[in-house]
Amino acid sequence: MAEVDGDSFTISSRWFTYNLQCEDKKFLYLNHEGRLELQHLTSNEQSQLDCKFNIHLFNDNSLQERKGRAVMVYANKDGKKMVACCRSNNEVYAEAMQDLPKKIEERQHKALFYMTMVVSNKYMFESTLYPSKFLGFEPDKRNSSLKAVVLLEKGHRGVDEKAEVTLTKKVI
Fold first, then answer.
1. How many C-alpha atoms does 134 have within 13 Å on its Cβ side?
2. CB atoms within 10 A of CB 119
3. Angle at Cα 165 formed by Cα 99 and Cα 53, nearest 5°?
4. What is residue 73's predicted lDDT score, i.e. its pLDDT?
5. SS3 67
6. In angstroms, rounded to a whole number, what is the distance separating the alpha carbons of residues 141 and 126?
7. What's the pLDDT at 171?
8. Sign of torsion, CA 67 69 75 79?
9. What whole-number distance in Å separates Cα of residue 98 and Cα of residue 83?
């Protein structure tokens, strides 16, 4: 009998490229310092900045009920993958990785999210490391014209639009 590999994730060969936007149509991009930020961008600015993000699918080998599709979100920069990761202070930051992990042996990982559809092209990304916390957007404390990427906690009334991400296919 084959051994069941319980609480783990394995990388899939499937990934998709999108522009990611928040509720007020600001685009997620990787700034020149490698920070994730959101701002309004023209088509020309989108092509000049790193606005193209990959959503790489992972296979969930758990016997537990699935919360959504396991994914990692990253942008390519200087030959590395700048992967969206979580910290305990609700910070989301980009971490450079040469390659995505082929296998993750635990149920929680700083760069792994459960992606669930809200409506058509709107999704929510729940952290596997911090359950009930979702990728979200709030005003940047350093620059009011920008938004910062953070983890937002799901309250008793659910998560609001600040945690909804609109995915649009990258036009090349």
1. 25
2. 8
3. 30
4. 97
5. coil
6. 23
7. 52
8. positive
9. 10
Two structure tokens written together for 113: 């999210």
Exposure of 165 by Cβ count < 10 A (0-12 exposed, 13-18 middle, 19+ buried)? buried
Instruction: Report the distance separating Cα 81 and Cα 74, nearest Å.
Output: 6
> What tokens were used for 31?
């700034």
In the chain, the amino acid numbered 146 is L
Q: Are 118 and 124 in contact (CB under 8 A)?
A: yes
What residue type is 86 in one-letter code?
A: C
- CA dist., res. 51 & res. 36, Å (int): 10
Whole-number Å distance between alpha carbons of 96 and 140: 22
Task: Please give the distance of CA 155 from its chain centroid, rounded to a whole number.
Answer: 20
Question: Residue 156 is which amino acid?
Answer: H
57, 73 contact by CB (below 8 A): no
pLDDT truncated to tens, each residue of the chain (172 aa)?
344 456 789 999 999 999 998 888 888 988 888 889 888 887 777 666 667 899 999 999 876 776 799 999 999 988 899 999 999 999 999 999 999 999 999 889 999 999 999 988 899 999 999 999 999 998 888 887 788 899 998 765 666 778 889 998 865 4
Helices (H) and strands (E) in the chain, counts: 1, 13
CA 162/CA 114 separation, integer angstroms: 17
